[in-house]
Design goal:
There is one protein chain. The protein is mostly helical. The chain is built from eight helices and three strands. The chain has a three-stranded antiparallel beta sheet with strand order 1-3-2. Helix 2 crosses helix 6. The longest helix is centred in the first third of the chain and has 26 residues.
Length: 179
């Protein structure tokens, strides 16, 4: 841009650059991870839902909590769970305490499907994301992303079991991509 351009400061704002780079990186990463998910017969949203369930006590979440964590409407999470249920990857379970609540529960087939795709998915993550950073930079990035996630999506981590080891926290699911 021309230095005399009155809009140079406006359009060159660092906040726009940071946001643009974040979205470009996200979109590119999703595209790089998609082939492995496609081979496993899972959409990124399906994978994210299954990962949320694996990290929840008893492999189960109330449908409303799963919706909040995936940033979906109740009808949106119903469609995801319907699809996963048709595939035998989850089942619905009524709450014994509250007749209005229904749980999505991970099945053994759902766990097996995740096990089958996880090694390749982690290889993809290492190649296209985490392997690009030093351990310190990755730790700083995880901290920064948690800060952002907690500000814009405070229910994302609600009712999920924490990773059992420090190395697992580097691949904590963060939404539809499940990374």
């Amino acid at each position: 841009m021309d230095d005399g351009d009155p809009d140079a400061g406006l359009f060159g704002d660092t906040r726009l650059t940071a946001t643009g780079l974040f979205f470009e990186a996200h979109d590119g990463l999703v595209a790089k991870l998609a082939p492995t998910m496609d081979r496993a017969g899972l959409s990124p949203l399906d994978f994210g839902a299954l990962m949320r369930l694996t990290r929840s006590p008893g492999g189960r979440l109330r449908m409303t909590d799963l919706a909040a964590q995936l940033f979906l409407s109740t009808s949106g999470v119903t469609r995801v769970v319907d699809r996963l249920q048709r595939g035998g990857l989850v089942r619905r379970e009524s709450s014994a305490d509250d007749r209005r609540s229904t749980y999505a529960v991970l099945t053994a087939d759902g766990t097996d499907r995740l096990r089958g795709v996880l090694a390749d998915h982690l290889d993809d993550i290492e190649r296209w994301f985490t392997g690009l950073y030093t351990a310190q930079d990755l730790g700083d990035l995880i901290t920064a992303l948690r800060t952002l996630r907690d500000a814009v999506h405070p229910n994302a981590a609600k009712n999920t079991a924490p990773p059992s080891t420090a190395s697992e926290s580097a691949v904590e699911p963060s939404g539809p991509t499940g990374t």
